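Regression check, benzoic acid case 211:
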Amino acid sequence: MAIQLGDVAPNFTAPTTQGEITFHDWKADSWAVFFSHPKDYTPVCTTELGYTAKLKEEFDKRNVKAIVLSVDTVDDHNGWSADIEETQGTAVNFPIIGDPDRTVANLYGMIHPNADNTMTVRSVFIVDPANKVRLTLTYPASTGRNFNEILRVIDSLQLTDGYKVATPVNWEHGDDVIVSPALSNDEASELFDGDVTVVKPYLRTTKQPNL
Ligand code: BEZ
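Current build output:
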């Protein structure tokens, strides 16, 4: 069965460009963004991995580690990494898993045979410090992902884990948030220092509480 939200992210041990990694030990109490790309030495993937490398500071601020997989070998990943640095202007600063026998790709359902029988699709798993899967995304090979959206989701998850709020459509860090429907008006007012706007009884907003 496909990996679902709330599942424990399956553990594995695999070779990577940073040596052998056991996933749960490597991530420890960090968040992780674990994503697959279809193939090394391909253009869209080159831009995705270059951009991910540029996000290192943003990931570090949020206690997030990135880890990447395709069904190519570690030797291929190492050769391609030089091209990524040359063309995208940033050295790859996260491990890329070599998975030519598809062990990890199959564990995570990253091959969708009716789309392509040989390559991984563009899967994304956001995994929290307790190793629970908090987001899954699947994109086709022809569409590069929006990694700013992945950061945005991490911001939302970290905020809503800590406060009784949810984030509305197109929310960005700093925007107003939605008060949890589980709170009464009195509870919400006390929790958010009287700063609650009631648009409808079920739609109440407040300032982002952790600013
Ligand atoms: C790419 O990364 O450009 C790509 C990879 C596989 C299929 C199509 C595009």
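Comparison notes: The mean pLDDT is 98. Residues 38-39, 42-45, 141-142 surround benzoic acid (CB under 6 Å). No diff flagged against the previous build.
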